[in-house]
């Protein structure tokens, strides 16, 4: 049983709450391990059709627990490979929608964690800080990959150099988040969206995620080829047959994610 995170599963949605509120959900090695194992389980479990990540208390996640960094040199390369990188890779390779419900500050690797999700729903109280340079570090846990893709290189470098907070409305304007909602509605609105996605053609969503990730590093020709391959797979799913049948019968489709 994890104790740095809370995991709840219902109606096809796995909700993960980072649960170290006294330190704004700073990540220690135990939390990174529990998050990795839970995401692995969510990847494998066919009953999980959408994942939501949020934080307990007033923060989303303040990144690395700096109290574990008071003792002097450590190999950050090894630490990142062992802790954050598997978490980020699982989120990006999991063929199911992953949502971040950003309830408060998302800083450092906590900001990267939010950016790794497919969609971000932000509370009006959310903020994003590429805080790394404040402690003399480089953006990690995927921020160098996500940020320029989401906001463009110039803005990404500005956010990384200056390490100033971006509030929810500015994040929406920049394309860092998909939606901003009143704080008290955050979980209800995010869970509504998660349930809607979990009831959708989740095999097709997974293949869409794979195809778009592939397209980010390919030529148009290769992307067209890969799309055709993904469509071949989607075209053979029960959900595709159900979608076409439901259209012809003029009724709502009932997707099962297979
Ligand atoms: O290790 C490696 O492998 C390298 C990887 C690095 C990845 C990274 O994430 S590096 C970046 C690490 N994170 C930070 O540098 C952020 C540190 N936190 C802050 O700058 C601020 O807390 C915030 C801007 C996020 C929020 O500020 P504010 O004023 O809203 O809250 P606060 O008062 O600073 O924090 C509340 C409490 O949480 C406070 O404890 P206290 O005084 O009530 O006992 C604070 O010390 C604690 N806290 C916040 N963030 C962290 C933390 N404790 C440990 N580690 C933290 N990251």
Write out the strand line-up for the largest beta sheet, numbering strands in chain order: 1-2-3-5-7-10
Alpha-carbon Rg, integer:
19 Å
Remind me, CATH topology of the largest domain? 2-enoyl-CoA Hydratase, Chain A, domain 1
Share of residues in helices: 40-55%
The number of helices is 11
Instruction: Report the top-level CATH class of the largest domain.
Output: Alpha Beta
Rough shape? globular
- At the fourth CATH level, what is the homologous superfamily of the largest domain? 2-enoyl-CoA Hydratase, Chain A, domain 1
Strand content: 15-25%
- Mean of residue pLDDT? 97
State the CATH architecture of the largest domain: Alpha-Beta Complex
What is the number of beta strands? 10
Oligomeric status of the shown chains? Answer: single chain
Tally of discrete structural domains: 2
The span between the termini is 29 Å
Largest sheet entry: 6 strands, mixed
Bound small molecules, by name, code or SMILES, are: ligand T3D
Record the SSE blueprint.
Layout: E1 5-10, E2 13-18, H1 29-44, E3 50-55, E4 59-61, H2 76-82, H3 84-93, E5 98-102, E6 105-107, H4 109-116, E7 119-123, E8 127-129, H5 143-151, H6 153-162, E9 166-167, H7 168-174, E10 179-181, H8 186-198, H9 202-215, H10 220-235, H11 238-248
Parallel strand pairs: 2-3, 3-5, 4-6, 5-7, 6-8, 7-10
Antiparallel strand pairs: 1-2, 8-9
The structure holds ligand T3D.
Ligand T3D is lined by residues 23-24, 26, 62-67, 69, 76, 79-80, 105, 107-109, 129, 131-132, 134-135, 137, 140.
């Amino acid at each position: 049983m994890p104790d740095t995170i809370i995991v709840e599963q219902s109606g096809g949605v796995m909700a993960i709450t980072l649960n170290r509120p006294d330190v704004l959900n700073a990540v220690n090695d135990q939390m990174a391990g529990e998050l990795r194992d839970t995401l692995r389980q969510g990847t494998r479990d066919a009953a999980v059709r959408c994942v939501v990540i949020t934080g307990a208390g007033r923060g989303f996640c303040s990144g690395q627990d700096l109290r574990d960094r008071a003792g002097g040199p450590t190999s950050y390369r090894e630490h990142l490979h062992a802790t954050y990188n598997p978490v980020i890779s699982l989120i990006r390779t999991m063929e199911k929608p992953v949502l971040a419900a950003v309830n408060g500050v998302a800083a450092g690797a906590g900001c990267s964690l939010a950016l790794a999700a497919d969609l971000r729903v932000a509370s009006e109280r959310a903020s994003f800080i590429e805080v790394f340079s404040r402690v003399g570090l480089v953006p990690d846990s995927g921020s160098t990959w996500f940020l320029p893709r989401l906001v463009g290189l110039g803005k990404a470098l500005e956010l990384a150099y200056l390490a100033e907070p971006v509030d929810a409305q500015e994040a929406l304007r920049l394309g860092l988040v998909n939606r901003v909602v009143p704080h008290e509605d955050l979980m209800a609105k995010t869970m509504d969206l998660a349930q809607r996605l979990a009831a959708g053609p989740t095999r097709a969503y997974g293949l869409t995620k794979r195809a778009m990730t592939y397209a980010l590093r390919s030529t148009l020709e290769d992307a067209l080829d890969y799309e055709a391959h993904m469509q071949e797979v989607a075209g053979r799913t029960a959900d595709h047959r159900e979608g076409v049948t439901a259209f012809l019968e003029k009724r709502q489709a009932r997707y099962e994610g297979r």
